[in-house]
């Protein structure tokens, strides 16, 4: 992660190295925190935040799901994002809004702290080879929604993802795909998942336990515009083995082809035509080269 000059922290811009929290913070001890990650893209009208309103709505919905209220509204956080991009002199960047529990007497009453962090690159990238990731269907399942509500983006939930990833890496793979307790495919460890079979684009429903990813939604909307048939339905592991294409999506990864699943080559093992067409179309949208989704771009 490349260090920048300033971070927005609890209402003010502070030098990067001063954005600290006490070691006893409940955000560290108990993993109680919520976050969003999204991108700022260069457009012909200058830098623009991509789908920032959707990300900030999801942040507040995550808090609501966990019976928590945050100190700053979406409007305040949006203004903070713009301030951080400008103050660091960035054009294209990766932004994270983190709301976590600080130090205090009791995790039910301790106030949240809020940071907006801009970097030029995202964390957690495992470099795939040129053709894409080699993924393992993990033995680590997504927890039942009654145990952890996966529609929320909460920091502690990522222990489950981390376990699946570390296990996949130890087995010589470079990414993990997770199933739910019914044996249906849910997602990648920090990505949504899509399969293409005979020209039809398929992705599991949110009811499978998948996060309602903003990139997932962008891909679904752009696919419709490209006249690619779409089905949002449960997917079984063997469908991935026999798909023509499988790819992961996320703010961090974009559209990331999977070359193999459990050592079965997917299609011809190379990025497929549907993934490539969608990548090109989404790239035009995020850089404002088409008017189709101008409302998704918020000028900084
Ligand atoms: N699923 C999970 C579990 C994730 O952590 C992420 C990353 N936020 C995604 C999907 C992708 O979501 P988005 O496209 O909104 O970044």
Automatic annotation (TrEMBL):
EC number(s) stated in the UniProt entry for this protein: 2.6.1.42
Pathway as given in its UniProt record: Amino-acid biosynthesis; L-valine biosynthesis; L-valine from pyruvate: step 4/4; Amino-acid biosynthesis; L-isoleucine biosynthesis; L-isoleucine from 2-oxobutanoate: step 4/4; Amino-acid biosynthesis; L-leucine biosynthesis; L-leucine from 3-methyl-2-oxobutanoate: step 4/4
UniProt-listed CDD domains: PLPDE_IV
Keyword field: Amino-acid biosynthesis, Aminotransferase, Branched-chain amino acid biosynthesis, Pyridoxal phosphate, Transferase
GO biological-process terms attached to the record: isoleucine biosynthetic process; L-leucine biosynthetic process; L-valine biosynthetic process
Catalytic activity: L-leucine + 2-oxoglutarate = 4-methyl-2-oxopentanoate + L-glutamate; L-isoleucine + 2-oxoglutarate = (S)-3-methyl-2-oxopentanoate + L-glutamate; L-valine + 2-oxoglutarate = 3-methyl-2-oxobutanoate + L-glutamate
Pfam families from the UniProt entry: Aminotran_4
Protein origin, superkingdom: Bacteria
GO molecular function: branched-chain-amino-acid transaminase activity
Primary enzyme class: transferase
SUPFAM superfamilies: D-aminoacid aminotransferase-like PLP-dependent enzymes
InterPro entries attached to this UniProt entry: Aminotrans_IV, Aminotransferase-like, B_amino_transI, BCAT-like_C, BCAT-like_N, Class-IV_PLP-Dep_Aminotrnsfr
Co-factor(s): pyridoxal 5'-phosphate
UniProt xrefs under PANTHER family: AMINO-ACID AMINOTRANSFERASE (PTHR42743), AMINODEOXYCHORISMATE LYASE (PTHR42743:SF11)
Recorded family membership: Belongs to the class-IV pyridoxal-phosphate-dependent aminotransferase family.
The protein's role, per its UniProt record: Acts on leucine, isoleucine and valine.
This protein's name: Branched-chain-amino-acid aminotransferase
Species assigned in the record: Saccharothrix ecbatanensis
Gene: ilvE
